[in-house]
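Run log, item B.
One chain of 378 residues. Sequence copied directly from the ordering sheet:
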Amino acid sequence: MTKHSPLSRLLCDLVSIPSINPSLDQDNIGCAEEPVTAYLEDLSQKAGLRTNRQKVIPGRDNLMVSLSPMKKPKQRILLAPHLDVVPASLEAFSPKISKGRLYGRGACDTKASVACFFQAILDLSRSTNRPTQTEIIFVGLVDEEFTQSGSRAFAQKGPKGNLAIVGEPTGLQVVTAHKGSLWLQLETHGKAAHGSTPEKGENAILRMHHALEILFNEYSVLLSCKNHPLLGSPTLSVGKILGGSQPNVVPNRCTVDLDRRTIPGESIDSVIKELKGLFRPLGKRAPKFKVSRSVPCPPLHTDSSIPNVQMLLKKAGRRKACGVPYFTDASPLSAGGTPSVVFGPGNIAQAHAENEWVDLHQVERAHSIILNFLKELP
C-alpha cells in the first residue's frame, strides 16, 4: 500500500476525526461518532450503496451500509467495527505516516478495521465478481469503548446475520473466543472510633483484609484449576480500594472493586455462588458484594467449524482460530443470535497507547483478506 493509496487516505481521514466516546471525554475535546458516521454515509451514498441509520443514543446512531446480492439472499454477512475512540489530545488526531506506520488516536483501535472493512465493501460494489446470494452489511457501531450500547442495540433490533466479523486489532488472527468481564464491588462495615483507642472500634479495612487473603490465595488456586483451550484460566484483578476518612479514625467502611474475567461455562450467578462459598467461613465478617457493571458482558465462544469461519481462516492463512482475554462487541452480537468472530489489523498492545500506531502493510493485508473472503461468498 502506497502512502497515498485510497485505503491509506481513508484511514488518515478517519483518524483525523476525533470521535472520542463522550462518556469518557471529560475535557470535551472530541465530537462523538456522528462526524465519522456522516463521513462514511456520504461516501456510501456517492458510491450508490444503500444506507440506513439505527438510533442508539440521542445524536449517536449505528450506520448500516448494505450491498445487496443480484439474486434473492440466502445469507447475510456483517462487517462490524466500532467508530468511537478513547480520549487523547487534539494533536493525536493529526495522522502521521512514518516508516510504514500510521500514527494517531484510533489508528489501531479500531479505525484501521473501519477502513479495511469499508474499503472492501466499496471495492466489491464496483466489481463484477461479487456474491449473488449473500447480502453484505457494513455496520459502524457506536459506544464500544463504554457500554457497547451500539452492538447491544443492533443485537436487539437486527438484522441478524449468518456471521459477524467484528473489527479489533487481532494481528490478523481470527478470534472465535474471548473472556467475559464481570465487575464486582465488595463492601465491609465496622465501627468508627478514635485512632488512639482502636480497640473501641471495629476496623472495616481489617475485615476486608481477611476477604482479600481468601481471594489472593484460595480463590487464585481455584481459578487456576479451570481452563479453556483457547483462553486459559479465568482471572481476578483488584482494581480499586477505598477505606477510611483520615489516619486518626478507625474506618467504619471499606470497598474493593474487582474485575473478574470469565471463560465460557461461567456466568454471573456461578461466580457469585463461588464467592459466597469462599467467604462463608468469615461469618458476619464476610463482605457484602454486588455486580457494579450496569450491563452483562459474557464470554464469547463461536464454533470454528462454521463454514464461513473456516473460509475466513483459509483466506487469512490460518490453520486454527485463537482466543483473546479482552472483551469486544462480538459478545453482544453473538448473544443476539449472530455467530461472531473478531478480526483486524494491529496489535492490541497499541490500543489506547499514548503514541498509538498501526502497521500499514498489515492494514493492506487485512483489506485483501476481507475482500477475497467476500468475493468467494455465494
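Observations after the first pass:
- The chain has two domains: 6-178+299-375, 180-291.
- Residues 184 and 291 are 5 Å apart (CA to CA).
Flagged for discussion on Thursday.
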